[in-house]
Amino acid sequence: MRVVVEGVTKRYGEGTGPAVEALAGVDVTVEAEEFLALLGPSGCGKSTLLNMIAGLLRPTAGAIHFEGALPAGRPPTAMVFQEFALFPWRTVRGNVEFGLEEAGRPRAERARIVREMIDLIGLAGFEEKYPHQLSGGMRQRVGIARALAVDPAVLLMDEPFSALDAQTRQLMQEELVALWERTRKTIVYVTHNIQEAVYLADRVVVLSRRPGRVLDVVEVPLGRPRAEAVHGEPAFVRTVERIWALIKGQAREALQEAVR
Ligand SMILES: Nc1ncnc2c1ncn2[C@@H]1O[C@H](COP(=O)(O)OP(=O)(O)OP(=O)(O)O)[C@@H](O)[C@H]1O
Ligand SMILES: [Mg+2]
Fold it and tell me: What total of structural domains would you count in the chain?
């Protein structure tokens, strides 16, 4: 399914004091089966945009619509949140099963899907563990499995690996690339890490500082499958440099404001 974000502006707190403009006139199209990264500095409205695509928030102006048929029983979107978004009172199995229960799927079907998902994310043997018994990387895998279990048309991921240490993050990125290459799920992936965006995505939407506007949409000229070694390829380095050039001035301004 395609997602079309058209002229979307979001202001928070209108009428209750000074309003905060999070996003201003954002146009973005997410193509079916595309891995799209949304890159921008902290506070530029990335989560806001993702929440609007998920239908959890409404734009102040503009519109978001989905194009293409949605098979019966499948939700348009599912979200992988930042850390700590699992239900602590549910086991790995219970977390992965959650959306399927909500959707009223029969027990046998739920059990089959949960088994598939747990295999997919490599957590076989951990089904009965609770989130506090898992490492950060494992928890995020459960978050991904929980979102994938309901087979959404579009998977929304909000900085899913930002709380992980660098090595685990690298491994999780590799797993996600492999998973995406297998499933070709449409993904919108929010990050403020340029290397991560370029490594994972087909295209990178670069947002400005708040209020977030689209500075540019950068095509990633790297083939698939992608292995860790692409980090050293000239095309990778050039793309990272190109994006950095786009946002460098903004990062400098933010730093100057912070020390003022
Ligand atoms: N519920 C809200 N009420 C008022 N202001 C909000 C609300 N949610 C977000 N904001 C403000 O809107 C702006 C954008 O927030 P948002 O969380 O979308 O940014 P972000 O790009 O996801 O940032 P980060 O990278 O830090 O997660 C910020 O200035 C934030 O303070
Ligand atoms: Mg955010």
Answer: 1
Ligand 1 atom closest to Cα of residue 48? 18
The number of angstroms, rounded, from the C-alpha of 25 to the middle of its chain's C-alpha atoms is 21
Query: Domain for residue 25, yes or no?
Result: no
For residue 55 and ligand 1, the question of a CB distance below 6 A is answered with no
Distance from the alpha carbon of residue 45 to the mean position of ligand 1, in angstroms: 5
Question: What's the pLDDT score for residue 84?
Answer: 61
245 in a structural domain: yes
Q: Does 240 fall in a domain? A: yes
Structure tokens at 243: 């994006």
Q: Is there an atom of ligand 1 within 6 Å of 211 CB?
A: no
Q: How many Å apart are CA 116 and CA 110, to the nearest integer?
A: 10
pLDDT at 252 over 90: no
Cβ–Cβ contacts within 10 Å for residue 240, how many?
Answer: 19
Q: 191 C-alpha to center of ligand 2: Å?
A: 8
Answer yes or no: is 242 within a domain: yes
What pTM value is reported for the model? 0.93
The side-by-side arrangement of strands in the sheet containing 20-30 is 20-30, 2-12, 61-67
Choice from 9, 28, 44, 82 to test ligand 1 binding pocket (greatest atom count within 8 A of CB) = 44
- The answer, yes or no, to whether residue 172 has pLDDT greater than 90, is no
| Per-position b or e across 109-136, b if 16+ CB within 10 A of its CB | ebeebbeebbebbebeebeeebbeebeb
Q: Is the CB of 14 under 6 A from ligand 1?
A: no
Q: What is the CATH number of the domain that holds 35?
A: 3.40.50.300
Instruction: Name the residue with the closest Cα to ligand 1, atom 30.
Output: 43
